[in-house]
Amino acid sequence: MSKIRAGIVGVGNCASGIIQGIELCKRGDKDARALGNTKIGAYRIEDIDFVTAFDVGANKVGKPLSKAIYLGPNMVKWTDSVSGCDAVVKESPVLDGVGLYVGEKIKPIKSGRPIAEIREEVLADLKSTKTQLLVNYLPVGSQKATEFWAEVALEAGLGFINCIPVFIASNAGWAKRFSKGGIPIIGDDVKGVVGATIVHRTLARLCSDRSVRVDRTYQINVGGNTDFLNMKEQQRLESKRISKTEAVQSMLTHRLPDERIYVGPSDFIPYLGNTKLAFIRIEGTMFPGIPFNMEMRLEVDDKANSAGVVVDAIRYCKIALDKKVGGPLIEASAWLMKHPPVSLTDDVAKERVAEWVSRPA
Hints:
By secondary structure, this protein is α/β, with parallel strands linked by helices. Helices cover about 40% and strands about 20% of the residues.
């Protein structure tokens, strides 16, 4: 029996990537077993088992998770099949989880069932499967849908990992409710392993550490999966831009005025698929008032970037459950998320989360 019984909300590319990555670990793949944090506390990556799953796609609801992760519009195919994912994907309420541009690709189920009825079925499923924590992988801009699942986590007593830029862990009201319930939460908006934001943060921190002034900076991102298609809808992007911008601003000695910093998704280029391109530029001034600038281009697999972080978040959340620690996990959130409740430099966050894991219950 698996040591970590997880549920996943949103069976899209990110879910497909993390499940296939875990499968490669189980098979003993050399790189999968050697790279990343192979063990956190008592838990290995292959100790994670997804025992519940929820989605809105008509082609995925009712299918075994092992099959649903390969269905369109998903693009990840790192392995041909996965084992131990026999959970049947259950219906999730749509609410605001499907944007204008992705509606035709996702084709949400039209069951017409009341949300209250779906909620009761969800709670019953989580209880019968003995799910311990939920991973929220809904699309960017899913404010109401994420709040629905945060409420479910609170009612069911499940740990909650919020991978998207809807502010739950970093919202004082929600944080208080998770603390009062003794339920751990990690959030908000997952950083990539070597993603655009973590690289931008590192360059900004370099400038601060070397006593130079950053005068202007931008980060422009493009990609070709449904995540980027969804983000063509500008009103869904407000929290995403805040999350990514604050992640960079928190590394600067002097906060930049809004008109001198731009960080955010820019466009959807279909043929890129899961490849993400990031273009970063920093303009600044060094001693004794001499200008400099730097530019870089980053090309990464967007879903590998997410999976490598979330397998860690799941294990930190399970350790918190073991220790009976509730509320926002400050150290883990600062290390793994773009918009944590408390921002720390990455080196400090890494050190503190390691200390937290080794601390007796």
